[in-house]
Design goal:
Layout (H helix, E strand, L loop, with lengths): L9 E5 L9 E5 L4 H9 L8 H12 E4 L13 H4 L4 H16 L20 H14 L4
Antiparallel strand pairs: 1-2, 2-3
Length: about 140
């Protein structure tokens, strides 16, 4: 029996303190690695264009948003919809997405069953275990 991948994680990006305050974009944080690498490289890979990056973001990362045009009509969270949004917003979206990817995950829901730290949890314990490995695996 194989391992089933965990449920994909999502986050809601907000843009407080910018002219985009009130805008919300729901994004998938656990997008496939190939998509995340494409986005991080920003289209610098040979044969990859900015359009490829926009398309990957809109198809694989953006789930939904609350953006409206100047007449109050919803802008669809699609590649076509992104084409109607100023470029600066895409930059803010990508910055927020990257910050969320790099953030520290929430703590576990439940503490360790015995309440003790695992061996090697501290840097000193890691250093000590490394030294003992070197000593025991040396030439002999």
């Amino acid at each position: 029996m194989g391992f089933r991948l965990p449920k994909r994680k999502a986050a809601t990006l907000t843009f407080d303190g910018t002219e985009w305050e009130g805008a919300e974009v729901r994004v998938l944080l656990s997008a496939p690695l190939e998509i995340i690498l494409l986005v991080e490289e920003g289209g610098s890979r040979d044969g990859v264009t900015s359009s490829d990056v926009f398309e990957a973001v809109m198809e694989e990362i953006v789930i939904s948003w609350n953006l409206e045009d100047d007449e109050g009509n919803p802008i669809p969270a699609t590649l076509e919809g992104m084409g109607k949004v100023p470029q600066e917003f895409f930059g803010l979206l990508m910055r927020g997405y990257t910050q969320n990817l790099m953030s520290v995950p929430d703590p576990l829901d439940e503490p360790s069953p015995n309440g003790k730290q695992s061996p090697g949890d501290t840097m000193q314990e890691l250093a000590n275990s490394s030294e003992s490995l070197q000593a025991s695996n040396g030439p002999g």
